Amino acid sequence: MRMKINLGVVGAGIASRELHLPALRKLSDLFTVVAVNSRTRKKAEEFAGIVGGDVRVFDSYEEMLSSDSVDAVVLAVPISLNPKMIIAARRANKPVICEKPVAASVKEAVPLLRLPGSSPVYIAENYRHIEVYEKAAELLKEGRIGIPLAFSWLKWVDFGQDNKYVQTKWRQTPEHVGGFISDGGVHDVAALRKTLGDVEEVSGFTKKSLDYLGAENCVVFNMTLENGVIGNYSVVYGAASPLNRFEIVGTDGLMLVDKDGATIEIFAADREKIFVNKTDGFIEEFRDFYNVVEGEKNSLGTVGEALLDLATIEAGLVSAVEKRVVAVDSLLEES
């Protein structure tokens, strides 16, 4: 029989309430939420009431880390706080699962690669666990559209001023690079890297058209992957209507990967539509975190993986400012 992990939740906002808690409830054989700490005690108490049962409210993160009743912590806090809170968890020898992006910038993330100690640090990138991207990667390896040549990812996000994420104060004046471009973009880069491979260099163009989004909200990133595939990632936050279209062209056909519909369409010698399980990846990432705490290898939630996601986005942002092609690895070397 597997032992349950007693979790302390840090941050009682949207991610904890609407994304993490539903997943943790479905994994009640693996986790028990026993504690919460948030910016205000009132918010923490409200979250404890939602969880139900005997949930202790801690007035400080440090107090939670020193408690023997908490086996591990989950961080869902403003991005700029991630590094110091990860470091504090490692010093306390507490396993930690932390929401992405790993840090506000590559420079702030790189030191996390060299932390002393051995307690697990897991960066929660749910897109690495979404089945449609796993299946797409598998089909590409099978050669279903021949050798991949190029990709196009068009994403329009209809975030208005009343959107709950837009209303988050720390997102309105972001300390993390590119605001929503990095906050949401690391998801797409994680999926892109899982499907097609690592990005070598980026040529970027950016535009800020809506002040309420806090930073650049329109980007076009032209990319060259390490395997020679070329492509384009374009995203607009604050668009009039949503779109999410990810296409891959190969020597023998075309693949359309639809996350929202959980389908993959292949246009080759024969046309085929493949249906996969529709998942948001949160249950899978928490299950994987449990296994890592129990001693399995961390391959999907490492700081290194999260750092490459962030570095790819930051390379595009730097390129737009400096009007040059930026190698992703060069950012890691400079940090």
UniProtKB/TrEMBL annotation:
It comes from the Bacteria. Residues 5-115 form the Gfo/Idh/MocA-like oxidoreductase N-terminal domain. Residues 133-253 form the GFO/IDH/MocA-like oxidoreductase domain. One of its GO terms (biological process) is NADPH regeneration. GO terms for cellular component: cytoplasm. The lineage of its organism: Bacteria, Thermotogati, Thermotogota, Thermotogae, Thermotogales. GO terms for molecular function: nucleotide binding; oxidoreductase activity. This is Predicted dehydrogenases and related proteins. Transmembrane segments: none annotated. InterPro entries: Gfo/Idh/MocA-like_OxRdtase_N (IPR000683), GFO_IDH_MocA-like_dom (IPR055170), NAD(P)-bd_dom_sf (IPR036291).
